[in-house]
């Protein structure tokens, strides 16, 4: 199978060829260093290699042995060069195809429903084996695809979060204060679902916080128990945190602005926001429920909880200001209340005396 045929299959049947292409390249690598290459066999060897049939028996002497060894070494080098060219051609075809797919799906994400922005996960997940191969074989192509995905979908998520916060502010203007909790919960639930879905997808698709080169050097390797069960590993290492921060660059500022608006519209708005955000930071509520992820094994791996901690801090500061204002108003309230009580007492005494007279 030629590189041109591989490229055509990759562009036409990406889902069916995801594993076949990887196995083909692996077989080429094995042939280049295996017994067939050392014996001068294999379909990819040059014509000079095909003429070397004996293992050092050309001339029966040292000269013949050295010449045969040189030919065999040249054959191995030629196979390695062909393999490198096939690898580069396959990497270029994959990078070009995935780049076009990422841009097309990003341009198509203009639906009014924010949850529709996650439809691209189903389209891109079949390419996950290719991304793993690119991360191992071509760092430049892999990094380029990461930049394209982050640059494209960061704008989509920024628009989604901003629209959700603007809708909440408009609803708060017409809703009573006791409905502020429900409106804020709706926004936080939507953003939480979006962040968790993106973390699961990006961890699986881009193989974040996975040493692909280290695993591939161990041979066939062993699948983890979670991978065998088909579960998505929840990791939040340095690579995942950096990736998610770049994917949601305005999340913290939008939510903090919403908390500030709630604080201005309701004297106790910051306290309501602190209660909503605090439950999620502590893992006691949210879209996934308290039991999702099995407590310490899953919830602590969520990037969303760390991002929401900044919102909880802003709400806590607003709640502190509200409490300080109430405490500062207490002396005036007590003085006013005492004045009112004294005036009422004087009026009662005057009425009683007037009645006696």
From TrEMBL:
GO terms for cellular component: exocyst; plasma membrane. One of its GO terms (biological process) is Golgi to plasma membrane transport. Residues 214-233 are annotated as: Disordered. GO terms for molecular function: phosphatidylinositol-4,5-bisphosphate binding. PANTHER family: EXOCYST COMPLEX COMPONENT 1 ISOFORM X1, SEC3/SYNTAXIN-RELATED. This is (apollo) hypothetical protein.
